[in-house]
Specification:
about 30% helix, binds 2-phosphoglycolic acid, about 240 residues, 7 helices, alpha/beta
């Protein structure tokens, strides 16, 4: 893994956006794997600003999101479909038919997982996968104990994940119990992985990622098996590691 150190969230976001924009310019029909959550929002803001100022073109880009809650309609304010509209898609020129997110209201979620997995393969796999990291080391919604060999699948969300995400909902009980997520195998097949981490709440997981063993108990450690994984972490996220 290659570590890039940022002073703070804003710098992390700028560094991540620069990498992504350069890859889009080098390969206008790139397949981008996108993530939700608080971490990539600043990077998305940078992409929007760059698109406005410099006209970076996304018309040939395909996007595949990592995951979606099961049971939330696309219009639900907490669906990841809606998140992507509000934080990125409304503002840059990715064609609607080239934006892909698992369907969280499919009648048969397992069949939807299979369809999504085939779709990613039909697109030729992911060129650049953006990731956040959970406090328990999850990537996408792959919770601790998930086999590294697993492809797109249905998960029972860990209680800690539901609690971490409850801040977006009125009540904890409203946080869905299940989600559909790309598996760790899909993530590892990406040509380049970009994991972002900011803030003290990620310090434990970044220490485990940088200094711990490769183990399915800590999903993000799978990135150590990848030959082109870049971590961008800020000082607060790095505060428990030896690296400064
Ligand atoms: P966050 O979530 O970006 O909201 O911290 C990251 C994750 O859970 O993967």
């Amino acid at each position: 893994m290659n570590l890039l150190i940022a002073d703070n969230y804003d710098e992390m976001s700028r560094m991540a956006a620069e990498i992504l924009i350069n890859e889009v310019k080098a390969n206008p029909s790139i397949v981008l794997g996108l993530a939700t959550g608080s971490t990539p929002v600043g990077m998305y803001k940078q992409l929007i600003q760059d698109h406005r100022s410099n006209g970076t073109d996304y018309s040939q880009v395909q996007t595949v999101n990592l995951d979606e809650y099961i049971g939330l309609e696309k219009t639900d304010p907490n669906s990841y479909f809606r998140f992507m509209q509000e934080n990125l898609f409304k503002f840059i020129n990715i064609a609607e038919e080239k934006r892909h997110i698992p369907n969280g209201t499919a009648v048969d979620p397992h069949a939807e997982a299979e369809r999504y997995d085939h779709l990613v393969q039909q697109l030729g796999g992911i060129d650049l996968q953006v990731l956040g990291i959970g406090q328990n080391g999850h990537i996408g919604f792959n919770e601790p104990g998930t086999p590294f060999s697993i492809r797109t699948h249905i998960v029972n969300l860990a209680d800690s994940t539901r609690r971490a995400n409850a801040r977006f909902f009125d009540k904890f009980e409203q946080v869905p119990e299940h989600a559909i997520t790309m598996g760790i195998a899909n993530i590892l097949e990406s040509r380049h992985i970009l994991l972002l981490a900011s803030g003290a709440s990620k310090a434990d997981s970044i220490k485990r990622l940088m200094e711990g063993d490769i183990s399915e108990i800590f999903p993000a450690s799978a990135l150590k098996l990848h030959k082109n994984a870049t971590i961008i972490a800020d000082q607060q996220a790095l505060q428990l590691t030896q690296i400064k």
